[in-house]
Amino acid sequence: MVNDDKKKVVVVAESGRGRVLPVTYELIGAAEEIGCLGSWPVQAVVLGDQAEKMAQEISRAAGWPVIAGVNRHLDAYNGELYKEILSRLLPELKPAFVCLAHTSRGWDYGPGLAVRLGAACITGVEKINRTDQGLSMTRSMFGGKITADVVSKAGTTVLTIQPGAFKARVSDHARRPQVEVRRFDVEPRSSKYLGMKKAKESDALLNQAEVVVAAGRGVGKPENLALIRRLAALFPKAAVAGSRPVCDAGWLEYKRQVGQTGATVSPRLYLACGISGASQHTMGMRDSGFIVAVSTDPNAAIFNLADVGIVEDLTTFIPILIAELEKA
């Protein structure tokens, strides 16, 4: 991408029920990094029926100018309205990059927004580097087995930033907010918000556990979860967890899922059993103190994150480990 002093890096804040969600400040970290590498100023946008209040909070914390896009129908997220409002607002800001969160919301409206803007779209960005060809975005592919470095040649690029990949950043000193309020009288035409059903509270033990023993698709069959439970039982303050495929199969309850659409944990010890290491899972456990991975696949992505890796069938290794722990 050719640098243009008139262009900006624009962050679209993630919010819910009138509150700024924490991932917004991770987007701030990513946008500041892009801005420094490309010498672009940073601008933030927040949409909602209470957008002005949230814009004040973001601007005060980040020290950036923020546009509050107010719409009375955005008391809850609506992808149709996000695409409509942002496709009107963003062109006048001349963004080099538009940073969204790589969440269910960002997946929903990000690609469609890119189409409306005539922009490129790079999803799941985990790292940013400067190269001779421009800024390179690193993302995982094929379930985390490989990573790809992608350079955009478009004038504007929509990025979805992987939660947990960039440190949240706020200003050391609260600043006087710089907020511009814009009201958009746009009605949803193709969709209607009917309400939200709250899921059951997740198991508090999972978040509080000092040891987490997690099962992935590699456990093979639900009967092998007995080994996982036996191993977890040998540790104080331990919990059993699972990857999404295990929970989707009904082998474990969803409240035990770790990853992007589950819980985020940071135990002292994380035992990954039969887990491939897809980024959707690792983003929920990458801050664990010590990671041990067991997999029959020597090229499994989980080994890139593990402190100790064991290439072995878990039905062979775990009984041996249990026996040694019982002796100790």
Report the helical percentage.
Answer: 25-40%
Tell me what portion of residues adopts beta-strand conformation.
Answer: 25-35%
How many helices? Answer: 9
Question: Considering the protein shown, what is the CATH homologous superfamily of the largest domain?
Answer: HUPs
CATH topology of the largest domain: Rossmann fold
- Overall geometric form: elongated
Top CATH class of the largest domain = Alpha Beta
Low-pLDDT residue intervals, each spanning 5 or more residues:
none
The major sheet is characterized as: 9 strands, mixed
Distance from N terminus to C terminus (CA atoms, Å) equals 59 Å
Strand order of the largest sheet: 9-8-7-10-6-1-4-5-11
Q: How does this structure look, described?
A:
This protein has 328 residues and is α/β, with parallel strands linked by helices. It has two domains: 8-183, Rossmann fold (3-Layer(aba) Sandwich), CATH 3.40.50; 204-327, 3-Layer(aba) Sandwich (Rossmann fold), CATH 3.40.50. Helices cover 29% and strands 28% of the residues. It contains nine helices and 16 strands. The protein has helices at residues 23-38, 51-62, 79-93, 104-117, 204-208, 225-233, 244-248, 279-282, 314-327; strands at residues 8-12, 15-16, 19-20, 42-48, 65-70, 95-101, 120-131, 134-141, 146-151, 157-161, 178-183, 211-215, 238-242, 269-273, 290-295, 308-311. The strands form three sheets. A nine-stranded mixed β-sheet has the order 9-8-7-10-6-1-4-5-11, sandwiched between helices. α8 links the parallel β14 (269-273) and β15. The radius of gyration is 22 Å and the shape is elongated. The termini are far apart. The model has no long low-confidence stretch (mean pLDDT 88).
